[in-house]
User: What shape does this take?
Amino acid sequence: QVQLVESGGGLVQAGGSLRLSCAASGRTFSSYHMGWFRQAPEKEREFVAAIRWSGGRTYYADSVKGRFTISRDNAKNTVYLQMNSLKPEDTAVYYCAAAYAPINTGDYRLFGYDYWGQGTQVTVSS
Assistant: This one.
């Protein structure tokens, strides 16, 4: 089991920044690829960003590329999402998720995420 707890959400004006954190406990954090997803009201959950277990490769949705940065600190069992130049359309509940690396060796779009956090609300005002 892996327990994931997100933090760092809040209310920010358009153009501002937030840094989300996701703290993991349980099994070896470095054995997992990590992802960030978001879900806005009345919309489906969507992929935001992912990072492989080693931190060597990162991936982003086109809508956040150039504005968001995913990173991880395996010594602290934490993954981060730095969000800059925020827009009202970034408003959503943000979730982190973990995918076991040894069985997720291919395309990041096919990662199977087994563990999810409870989410943190990000609201961007115009």
Q: What stands out?
A: The chain is about 0% helix and 50% strand.
